[in-house]
Amino acid sequence: MTITQEPQAGTREVGRDRRRKEDQRLITGRTKWTNNIELPGMLHLSMVRSPFAHARITGIDTTEAKAAPGVMAVLTGEDLKDQQGSLPNAWPVTPEQKAPPHPAVAVDRVTFSGEIVAVVVARSAAAARDAAELVDVDYEELDAVIDLKVAAADEVLAHPDLGTNESALWVFDSAEAGTGDDVEAAIRDAEVLIEREFRQQRLIPSFMEPRSVVVDPTGEQFVMWSATQVPHILRLMLALTLGVAESKVRVIAPDVGGGFGGKLQVTPEEVITFLVARHTGKPCKWNETRSESLLAAHHGRDQWQKLTLAAKADGTVTGLKVQLIANMGAYLGLVTSGVPILGAFMFNAIYKFPSYRFECQNVFTNTTWTDAYRGAGRPEATFAIERMMDELATELGRDPLEVREQNWIKHEEFPFTTVAGLEYDSGNYEAATARAKELFKYDELRAEQARRRESGDRVQLGLGVSTFTEMCGLAPSRVLGSLAYGAGGWEHASVRMLPSGKVEVITGSSAHGQGHETAWSQIVADQLGVPFEDVEVLHGDTQISHKGLDTYGSRSLVVGGQAVIKAAQKVIEKAKPLAAHVLEANVADLEFADGKFTVRGAGADQEGLSLTGLALSVFAAHDLPDGMEASLDADATYDPVNFSYPHGTHLCAMEVDTETGETTMRSYVCVDDIGTVVNPLIVDGQIHGGLVQGIAQALWEEAVYDDQGTLITGSFVDYTLPTSADTISFVTDRTVTPSTTNDLGAKGVGEAGTIASTPAVVNAVLDALRPLGVTDIVMPCTPERVWNAIQGAAHQPVVEEAAPHFDESAPNQDTPETEGGTL
Amino acid sequence: MTKISVTVDGVNYEDEVEPRTLLVHYLREQLGKTGTVVGCDTSNCGACTVHLDGRSVKSCNMLAVQADGSEVTTIEGLADGETLSPVQEAFRDCHALQCGYCTPGMIMQATDLLRENPTPDEAYVRQHMEGNLCRCTGYHNIVQAVLQAADAGQGGEQS
C-alpha cells in the first residue's frame, strides 16, 4: 500500500513512481557483471585458503601445482610480502587502537579459517581451481580463540604479538560530554531498573552476485573492474596500499549485484589480482565461489550487549547504560572498528533519556573479520533499545506503545538535541504510530490475543513493536573528523549539457541496485526542466566519475542527490548571462522555470529561451557575451550539514505454535517517515528488502563456527537466507516530515527496514510467549530455540527475574561460566 | 571432450565440451550467454535457471552433455525481439528487481510456474518460487509481478 504524494506541480518528476531505467538490461540478460568480462590472454586466479583458524605456516610446496596443466604461476605470501603492503583500516576509533598488520596473503601465520595462503594463476578458472588442490601447505596449529566472551577474557590471544585481544575501548558519557546527566546517579536512584544482556549474532551480508575482480595491466593505466560498492575509495586505497600512483589506477564498478555493506571493503583478493596482473603482465580475473564468499567476505554484527535502563515507577526513563563487546574478527577491515561505534548515537533512539553512557570494547578473535552490514551499528542499537522498552513495559504491566510515547520526543519538540549529542531536525513519531496502529488493527489484534490466551490456544498470538530512528546520510565531514574517520563524507556530482539537448549527470555515488539512474534523472528533470528520458546518469567508473565517496550508509540521495541539485543549479546560473544576452534583458530580471528563461514582467505569452537551446548556442559559441566561457557544465561537491533522521513505527504479529516452536508471521505493518519521496516505487522496494534482511536476523540467519573455528554455515544449504515461501507480503505506508538539511527534504531509506524490523519480530515472538514464562530467546528464534525456551520456562516457576537468557545448545555462544546464567 | 548438439535461444550449436562442464559454464563461457549467472555452488539460489525443453532447470545442476539434443532457452531468448515477455514486463512494472542478479533466474522460473498454473494464488507463487533466492526485494514485488503476469493471462513463453 502506498500513499499518494501530493503532486508539487503538474509535471514534477519527483514523487512519481517511474519505472526504472536500469531494468531493461537487467530483465533481458544484457548486464555487465564483472564476471562477464573476458579479455584476450586473460589468466584466472584461484585462492588457496587456510583450513585452520590459527596456525603457523611452516612450509608451502608449490612444485606440483606449478607443474599442473595450464598453470602460469603460483605465488605465496613469501613471494608477495614486499609488495602487498597492509590492507587499510580507515577508522582508528581511538588514538591507542591496536591492530595487527593485515596482509592480503598470509606470510608466516594464518589467523582465521579462510585466510589466503597462496594464489594459483592459470589459463582457465577450472585449471586454477584444480591446481589449487595441489598446493601443499604445512601448518603448525596454534591455540585459537573463537568465542567472543572468551576472547574478551584475554587469555588465549588471536594475535600473540599484539599482547592482547583488545583493539580499542570507546566510551561516550553524557555527563562528561555535557549532553546529559550522570547515568550512574540515575541507576542509583532508579525506581525501576532493567538489566539485560542480548546477543547480536554474526550475520553474512550474502549479496547475490559473488565478488569478482578483473585487472587489465595493459595500457598506461591499470584498469580494475570490481564488484564493489566503493570504486573511488578502492582506487585511493589501492594507491596507498601498494604505493602506485593514484593516477595510474582506474577502477570500474560495472553492474554490481548487491552489496548491503558487504562490498564496502578493500579486499585481499582485489590487491592480489592487481599484483598478479602486474607480475604476469596479463589481464587477470578472480571470481569467487559462494562458499568462498560466505567464508572470507566480511561478516557483520556479532556483539554482546549489556544494558541497564533506569526509570521512575511511572515509566519515565532516567538513564541508559550500554556496555558492548564487539567482535572484530581477526583483522580490522576498512571500517570494522567504527561499525559498533556508529551505534553509540542510536541506543537512545527516539527517546528523551536524561543520562546515557556507552562503552564499546572492540575485541579480536580468530574468525573472519566483521565490517559493515546493512545498518552497520544502528540495527544492533535499535534492537537492544527496542527490546529494553518492551522489557520496561512488561515490568510495569503497560502497553509497549504507551511507554514508548511517554518517553519519545514529541513532534513539537523538534529540532531536538539528544543525550548522545545529535540534533534531530524533524520527525513526528505520533503520526507514524497512529497510522501504523490503524493499518495494523492494533486494538483488534490485542483483543484476539487476549481471547487466545484465555482459551489456552495452542497457537498463541504476539504483537511486536519497534519505533525506530536512525542517523543516515553519512556524513558531515566535521563529524567524521571528530570520530577520527580517515575521510570526509561529502559527495560530488557533475551536470553536462550536451549540444543535442541531452543531459549527462555524473554522480560520485555508486549504485548497485538502488536505482540512481532513475531517481537522479527525476531530480535533474525537475531542476532543469528537461524530459526524464533525456537525462543519462553515469557512475561507477573513476575515469568518468573522477571524484566521489560512493554508496553506503543511506547516503546516496541525501548527500549525492543534493550534490546533483547543486550542480544543476550552477548550470542554470552559468546560463543566465547568455540568456540575458540573447533576450536583451538584465540577468536580475530573468526567471527560470520548466526549462525556460523568461523575463520578469514581459508577459505570459513570451516564448522564452530553453536551457537546452542555450546549450547548443554555447557549443557553437558564435555569439557569447564577452568573458563567458563556452560551457554550461558544472560540478558540485556537497558536504552535508547534518545527518538525516528517518523514523518509523513497525508493528509485527507473530503466531507461535507452543507445541512445536514454529513461528509464522501473520502480518507486518510499517509506517516510515523518510521525508520527501523521489520515487515511491523504489522506496517501497528498499523497505521490503530491508524488512526481510532484518526479519531474517530475528528468525533464520546466523554464521556459526565450531569450536575449532571452522565456519559451519559455509554454503547456502546451512546459511539459511529466507525464500519467498518463508516470507509474507507487507503493508507499507508513509508519513512525510521533510528533512530540513537538504533541498529535497529527503531522508535516507536504504537501511531503515533492516534497522527497524528485527526487534519488532523478536518482541512479537516474546509477546506471544510471556504468559508461558518465556522472557528471552537468543536470535535467530528458530523453532528449536522457541521450543526449548517454552520447555525451559515450563520446568521452572515463573518468577519476576529473567528466564535463562542464553540458549545452552547454541554454538558460538557462552563461556561455561555464564552459560544459562540469569541477570 | 564430448561432442554435443544443443539449440540455445533458437540457434543450433555443435560443440566439443569437457564431460565435467556444467551447462551454465557452457552457456556462459562457450556461447557467451552471460545473461545467465551463477550465484552459489549448491543449487540453492536459482540464479542460473534456464528452460530445458520448456521446463525450468538450474543450469548449474546439470552437465552440458546432458543437454545434448535439447532445446535451451535463456533469459536472452525470452523476449520476442523488442517485445518483452509478459513476465519480463511485469517484473519491470512491479519493480520486482533491484540489483538484478537473481532476476534472470526469477523470470525463467516464474515463466515456467505460470505455464504450469496460469492462475496461481499468492501462496502457490510463494511455494513455487522458493528455489530462487533474492537478497534485495524481500520477494514482495516479485510475488506481485508473477501474480500480475498471471492476470495478464499469458504468462507462458511466447512461441
In short:
The complex is a heterodimer of chains A (823) and B (159). Chain A has 823 residues and is of the alpha+beta class.
Structure description:
The complex is a heterodimer of chains A (823) and B (159). Chain A has 823 residues and is of the alpha+beta class. In chain A, the strands form seven sheets. Chain A has a seven-stranded mixed sheet with strand order 3-5-1-12-9-10-11, sandwiched between helices. Chain A is globular, with a radius of gyration of 28 Å. Chain B has two domains: 2-77, Beta-grasp domain (Ubiquitin-like (UB roll), Roll); 86-151, [2Fe-2S]-binding domain (DNA polymerase, domain 1), CATH 1.10.150.120. Chain B is built from five helices and five strands. In chain B, a hairpin with a 2-residue loop joins strand 1 (2-8) and strand 2. In chain B, helix 2 (86-93) packs across helix 5 (140-151) and helix 3 (103-116) packs across helix 5 (140-151).
What is the count of helical runs of chain B?
A: 5
Overall, the morphology of chain B is: globular
Low-confidence stretches of chain A: 1-9, 798-806, 810-823
Largest interface: A-B, 57 and 55 residues
Q: Using the coordinates shown, work out and report the CATH topology of the largest domain in chain B.
A: Ubiquitin-like (UB roll)
Quaternary: heterodimer
Estimate the global geometry of chain A from the Cα principal axes.
globular
Strand order of the largest sheet of chain B: 2-1-5-3-4
Write down the overall mean pLDDT of chain B: 95
Mean pLDDT of chain A: 95
CATH superfamily descriptor of the domain at 23-30 and 490-638 in chain A: Aldehyde oxidase/xanthine dehydrogenase, molybdopterin binding domain
Question: Secondary-structure blueprint of this entry?
Answer:
The complex is a heterodimer of chains A (823) and B (159).
Chain A: H1 23-27, E1 43-49, E2 55-61, H2 63-67, E3 71-76, H3 77-80, E4 109-110, E5 116-122, H4 125-132, E6 136-141, H5 148-152, E7 166-173, H6 174-177, H7 183-188, E8 192-203, E9 212-216, E10 222-226, H8 231-242, E11 249-252, H9 268-280, E12 284-287, H10 290-296, E13 300-311, E14 317-329, H11 339-342, E15 356-364, H12 378-396, H13 400-407, E16 416-417, E17 423-424, H14 429-440, H15 442-455, E18 459-469, H16 477-482, E19 491-497, E20 503-507, H17 516-528, E21 535-538, H18 556-583, E22 590-593, E23 596-599, E24 609-610, H19 611-620, E25 634-638, E26 647-657, E27 663-673, H20 680-699, E28 731-734, H21 752-769, H22 783-794
Parallel strand pairs in A: 1-12, 10-11, 14-15, 20-21, 27-28
Antiparallel strand pairs in A: 1-5, 2-4, 2-6, 3-5, 7-15, 8-13, 9-10, 9-12, 13-14, 16-17, 18-26, 19-20, 19-25, 22-23, 23-24, 26-27
Chain B: E1 2-8, E2 11-17, H1 23-30, E3 49-52, E4 55-58, E5 71-73, H2 86-93, H3 103-116, H4 122-128, H5 140-151
Parallel strand pairs in B: 1-5
Antiparallel strand pairs in B: 1-2, 3-4, 3-5
Helix pairs in contact in B: 2-5, 3-5
